[in-house]
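Posting for a labmate who doesn't have an account.
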Amino acid sequence: MRKKGIGLASAFRSITIIPVWGKESESICSTLYWFVSVGLLLGSVSYFIALFFNKFGSPLLGGLFAVITLAFLSRGFHLDGVCDTADGFGGGFTKDRVLEIMKDSTIGSFGAISVTLLIISKVIAAGSLFEFDRAKFIIVAAMVSRLMAVFQSVFNKYAKEEETTAATLVTGAKIRHLTVPTAMLFAVVLCFKLATLGDLLLLIGGSLLITALIAFIAYKKIGGITGDILGVTVEFSELVCLLIPTLSRNLF
């Protein structure tokens, strides 16, 4: 029998542009185990590129290239989800109409405004981390935000009845898929001293709040989540993780 992959290679191929060696996993749900690992690599690359531009430019320039790198390496996958969701939730008044708009590949005014404000906010938040010598939180933010996508998948139902990759991922996600990424997050962050335990718990708590809020709004609008909602979860929990260290710096 031909051996199948453990999901790591599939995770990178699904949510990044990074070419990796390895077999495809038999179940798309096995990729959930490795979302934090993907976040670790994306965050690390973004951090070191931003560090270069901060040193030879300015904190704001460092923040700009951190956000650019994250968007490029993830092929704008999650930002596209923000655009689709904003257009659907802003322009649709029934579930069917919202889902129809979300499926449309064109970007409307709600999507353009939302993604523009999001990117500006992330650039400023990431730049502020350099000013307060907390730039390593860029790495932590990339990891925590991917973990939130796993939480969203595990605890919510899919909004549509269709056979898509996102539908298979959400319907097949179980509590066990949280164990490996959660353990990896704590192990990497604490072992490499990217943040203290208190810092990490604060970031996770803030991210869980925004994740729950996104899920609540999605349930009100369309009765569940979609692949686009997972993208929104990643982007906004990442923003929260970039903002918290600066906003709460007097408590750290």
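Reply:
Got it, the structure tokens are right above this. The chain has one domain: 38-243.
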